[in-house]
Amino acid sequence: MKFETKAIHAGVHPDPSTGAIMTPIFQTSTYVQESVGVHQGHAYGRTSNPTRSVLQDNLAALENGTHGIAFGSGLAALDAILKLLEPSDEVVSTNDLYGGSYRLMMRLYERYNIKFHFVDLSDHDAVANAINSNTKLLWLETPTNPMLSIIDIKAIVDRHKTDNILVCIDNTFASPYLQQPLDLGADIVLHSATKYINGHSDVVLGAIVVKDKGLAEQFYFIQKASGAVPGPQDCFLVLRGIKTLHVRMDRACENAEYIAEKLQAYDKIANVYYPGLASHPGHEIAKQQMKHFGGMISFDLKHDTSAAANAILDNTQLFALAESLGGVESLIGHPATMTHASIPKEERAKVGLTDSLIRLSVGIENKEDLWEDLKQALG
Ligand SMILES: *Cc1c(COP(=O)(O)O)cnc(C)c1O
């Protein structure tokens, strides 16, 4: 089955008791047992819920995995992955990382004596230098947030994956429609389904997909034991969002390509970061490992101050000033003070995250309306 068909059908079946074509919201905490230990596969709502099971099966199919495990948020899913580690284990990760992931690693897990190294993952010598016998996890994001750098997933897997080291990709920015890391040799895919997968800015939810049964069993155990599960209504909404994922992504990518080119030609702008631009250093790799180039764009200004950025952020009408991304509506944000405020300024500067950097999540509105809005705000 091709992606578009799987988005609508994989794991989904009419409700056997009523024929309802849509997966019901099983709003229940427990299930009546016929006799002790005899039940229909569900015993308690933290351990399993039929609406959640359908979502998990659908997500697994979209990533070409075998098992999906859903969580109450993207960070709860990351938390579950970090729970695979033991004290003195080490993690090598990108130096351009979602701020919340950095915070969870450094503010919580470092206290449990897990060590994190943040390096430029496109620099293979730097990665090799950071790896040692304690390394258990390679943590990638691509495209990265907010610099939209592209990391060659297959090259990382080929050079650095060993029996001891799991490779995990945060695939939130690409969505499973644009990029399928398990096919490139990754072990674990993480999603903040809050973003493109749900796509309507009305749910917070996270997911892990794997294709190894042993890993899946560990994650189901963590899901049950730690209990960070999503509610059935949220699972239902994400399932509904997924049905249009490919249609939404196609339009968001088309709009973003149009806006990126317009921005690049605008004289007040210093740099436009968008992997779809031929001038982007990761353009060729992006072409190989992604279907299109995504809906996220960052740019900064020749006049590099927060005040100059604020003048734009305060003046867009269609682009709403807000955290998050991946919804049908376009958003604008200021990483230095919003999504990435938890990363120290020196660390931000190292990757080129300047005070004037502005991040766009391009939605599926009319692209000319979107450019008109940006143009008037830039003016
Ligand atoms: C939003 C986001 C997360 C965290 O997901 P939540 O659902 O907000 O917990 C993780 N990684 C990336 C790349 C994100 O954009």
What secondary-structure arrangement, pairings included, does this model have?
Layout: H1 3-9, H2 50-62, E1 67-71, H3 74-82, E2 90-94, H4 99-108, E3 115-119, H5 124-130, E4 135-141, H6 153-160, E5 166-170, H7 175-178, E6 188-192, E7 206-210, H8 213-226, H9 232-242, H10 245-264, E8 269-273, H11 283-289, E9 296-301, H12 306-313, E10 320-321, E11 331-333, H13 345-350, E12 358-361, H14 367-378
Parallel strand pairs: 2-3, 2-4, 4-5, 5-6, 10-11
Antiparallel strand pairs: 1-7, 6-7, 8-9, 9-12, 11-12
Helix pairs in contact: 1-2, 2-9, 3-4
The structure holds pyridoxal-5'-phosphate.
Pyridoxal-5'-phosphate binds next to helix 3 and helix 4.
The strands making up the biggest β-sheet line up spatially as 1-7-6-5-4-2-3
The CATH architecture name of the largest domain reads: 3-Layer(aba) Sandwich
Tally of distinct domains: 2
Strand content: 15-25%
CATH superfamily of the largest domain: Type I PLP-dependent aspartate aminotransferase-like (Major domain)
Write the CATH fold name of the largest domain.
Aspartate Aminotransferase, domain 2
- H/E series: HHEHEHEHEHEHEEHHHEHEHEEHEH
What is the number of helical segments per DSSP (H or I, 4+ residues)? 14
| Amount of helix | 25-40%
- Termini, distance in Å? 48 Å
Overall spatial form = globular
Task: Name the average pLDDT.
Answer: 96
Q: What structural category characterises the helix and strand content?
A: alpha/beta
Determine and state the CATH class of the largest domain.
Answer: Alpha Beta
User: Which regions are unreliable across 5 or more consecutive residues at pLDDT < 50?
Assistant: none
Query: Mind summarizing the main beta sheet?
Result: 7 strands, mixed
Bound molecules: pyridoxal-5'-phosphate
Radius of gyration: 21 Å
- Strand tally: 12
